[in-house]
Specification:
This protein is mainly alpha-helical. It has a domain of 63 residues. The longest helix has 23 residues. Helices cover 45% and strands 4% of the residues. Strands 1-2 form a two-stranded antiparallel sheet. α3 packs across α5 and α4 packs antiparallel against α5. The C terminus is likely disordered. It is extended. It is built from five helices and two strands, in the order αββαααα.
């Protein structure tokens, strides 16, 4: 049986309730609650990888017709099967590059290791995004307005 969806706020509050209200005090005298149970995104992620991935995503915004898609276009929904088939293609490319230092395919585009790994990240993240979105109660899913290169449509009134 699947565990019910729990929002990040509820998850965080549950952790706080389970742990004593420990406090940190800094040399300046400032105090904050203990961060031991909080996710350490700065520690979990690499700025080198995030930058490389951002460059990969920017490169792939241009569509076959020459138009630019919004940076969040993928969040409109891509079928699980499309993500998984693409993930496997890029995984095989990365595997071949790892084993043989080159990828043998019949396409003119040759994939390098950075490209293959970023494509794997994209497909795994997209698949996970769809899974997590499907677990959310329908009332909690709010489609954000589409981003355009000209403007950032997100504003506090939207949320």
């Amino acid at each position: 049986m699947k565990a019910p969806f729990i929002s990040a706020v509820d998850w965080h509050m549950n952790l706080i309730e389970k742990k004593e209200k420990a406090m940190r005090e800094f040399s300046t005298g400032a105090t904050r609650d203990d961060d031991e149970t909080k996710p350490d995104y700065e520690g979990y992620l690499s700025p080198l990888v995030i930058r490389c991935y951002g460059e990969y995503m920017t490169k792939h915004r241009k569509q076959a017709d020459g138009k630019l898609r919004g940076s969040d276009n993928w969040q409109k929904g891509i079928p699980y099967s499309a993500y998984f088939k693409s993930l496997w293609r890029h995984l095989v490319a990365a595997w071949a590059l790892h084993r043989f230092k080159r990828f043998f395919d019949h396409h003119e585009d040759r994939e390098d290791m950075e490209e293959a790994l970023c494509a794997i990240i994209f497909n795994a993240s997209g698949y996970l995004h769809e899974m997590l979105k499907a677990e959310m109660p329908q009332g909690d899913i709010k489609e954000a307005p589409a981003k355009t290169p000209e403007s950032d449509p997100y504003s506090p009134e939207d949320f």
